[in-house]
Every structure is written in structure tokens, then in C-alpha cells.
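Morning run. Coffee first, then this:
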Amino acid sequence: MITRILFFCLLFSGLVVKAEDDQEVTIKAKLKQLVVLRQAVLDAKNDEARVQANAEFLMFMRDALDHPKSFITDFDTIPMIADLRSGDGYFRMINWNLPFDDQTNRYYCFVQYFDKKENINKVIELKRGYRNLEGEYRKIFSEKDWYGALYYKIIPSKASGRKKRKRAYMLLGWDGQDQYSSLKVIDVLSITKRGLKFGADIFDYPYESKIKRFIIKYKSDASVSMNYEKQKKRIVFNHLVPMQPDLEGLYEFYIPVLEFDAFEWRRRKWVFVENVELKATAKDRIYNDPPEAQNIR
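And here it is:
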């Protein structure tokens, strides 16, 4: 009797190990498939072929993120996508752009996190990721009405004025708007039980009141840095000026100069500061556009 029980225990444990191995093989197979499909998007010769290839890639990405082991699996082997994780390990963002021949972009993004109460991975797909950012300073967006960007940095933060603070994070992103101009954005992502929210009233900016996000627009072929300095708790970016005085206000003709402005975290607000000192070192990582997806952890 004891021998029979021992036999069944060993058989059951063997089946469990085999099932776990099969799961690991499955997620690896899915990743290899996604690498091929993403490369097909990048190699497409025209917009129509690119859109079709991306639709297939998107479908397989949804399937891969539904896998039980997807949250603990890195997706950064897929070419030219961002696989970003928050510093606290709470969530990750899978994000990529679809470039068009006219140099505009459409953006796609999944937010994935582990729900401890329900003991499951939750995946939220952001919708309508192709909105023009310009003029959207004061609007609040949700996962159902997202403006679209390619993110390269997640910064932990906290929104103010609430007894039970929501999980809030600062996002640094890039948007290749068109052949004339590009954008960089500092936004706020809040994760709540009701879903995702983009934008918050935590910016102290003297030139625009009650902005929900900060956006800079500049000449498309200019290299503009925007980075987070953890030790000084500030987001530093190039000061922009028009190429000529008579082009003031036409931001597609703005270029960076060797001066820097910043938002510093003070008293639960991001406070704008002009002309900050920036000492570059070999360890500094200044992100230009578009950011290299494989190197933006």
C-alpha cells in the first residue's frame, strides 16, 4: 500500500514538473514568434504592409501576455520595443511605435501587473494610441482614450491631496509627431482599482496654469535630452530656442542649446526651475529620440 502511494506521489510530482517545463517552453516559443513578427513590421516596404504585419504582431502579443509566466519574462529580445518595469516591481509597460512613410507614428502599449488579491496577472491594453499630443496639456486620459507616446523611463512618484494615495508614476516619453517636429512629454500615470489615469495636477509651471502633463515640441531632426536625476530628484531637459528670432512660437523650428531647465520634486509638486547646472559624467544616460528600445531599462 505504501509503495503504491509513493508511486502515485512521484508520478504526480513528475507531471507537475513537466507542466511547468511545458509552460516555460511555450512562453519561449511565443517570444521567438514575436521577434519574427516584429521584424516583419520593421522590414515592411510600405504603410499597407506595415499595418498588416503590425496587426498580426499585436494579436500574438495579446496572446503572449495572457501566458501565466509572461509577467516574470523579459520581452526585451523583441526588436525596437520598450519593456519597462517600475522601480518597485509593481507593473511593467510593453510599448512600441508603428512608423509611417510620412514620418508620423502610431503607438501601442500594454500595462501588466500582478493582482495579489485575485492572484492573477492583469493586462490592460491602451486604446487610441495615435492622438496628436499638441494642446493636450490640461486633459486627463484613461486606458480607453490614450494620446500615444513611446515611453523610455518610469519614475515613482506620489500624487498629493489624498489620504489614501494611489499608485502614481512619472513617465518620460517621445513622440515623432511628423516630418517637421517631435515631442517629449512628462506625464503622470495613476493605477487605481477603476483602471488607469494619465495626467495629474502636480506641476508647478509658471507659464501655464494647472497643466496635467508637460510637453516640449522641437525640430524633428534635433537631439533633445530629457532625463531623471535620482539623487537630486529632478527631471532635466534641454532649454529650447527658435532657430531665428522671427520664428518664435513656431515650435517645429525650435532647437536645444547648452542650457538646461528642470522640474524638481518639492513639497509634493514638480516645480519648474530654469537654468540648472548639469555636470555630465560617463555614467549619465541622456536619451535622445527615438530612444533605443533595448537599452532603456
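Residues 2-43 form the longest helix (42 residues). Good start to the day.
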